[in-house]
User: Which sequence fits this backbone?
């Protein structure tokens, strides 16, 4: 297994998740992002937002799979599992 491709897939999966969460908070609420984040955290909806934010990882998964980079795909799967475990504990 190529460790650099795995790390690339893992961090790109996390980055795509957090960017999509940011975009969701930016466009779905009228509040600034930090205030909407605090509001969602206080209402215990942070797990739902993270789950929605991890959906664009499917596009990244398909891209790396089409490029035959299986190690990067394993990294994306590890990132989704990490986000899922974080969501369970939140």
Assistant:
């Amino acid at each position: 297994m190529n460790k650099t491709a795995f790390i690339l897939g893992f961090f790109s999966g996390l980055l795509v998740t957090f960017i999509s969460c940011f975009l969701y908070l930016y466009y779905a609420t009228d509040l600034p992002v930090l205030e909407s984040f605090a509001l969602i955290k206080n209402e215990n909806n942070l797990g739902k937002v993270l789950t929605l934010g991890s959906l664009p990882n499917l596009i990244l998964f398909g891209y790396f799979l089409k490029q035959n980079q299986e190690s990067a795909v394993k990294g994306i799967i590890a990132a989704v599992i990490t986000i899922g475990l974080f969501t369970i504990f939140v």
Notes: Residues 3-89 form one domain. The CA atoms of residues 50 and 83 lie 7 Å apart. The chain has five helices and no strands. The radius of gyration is 14 Å.
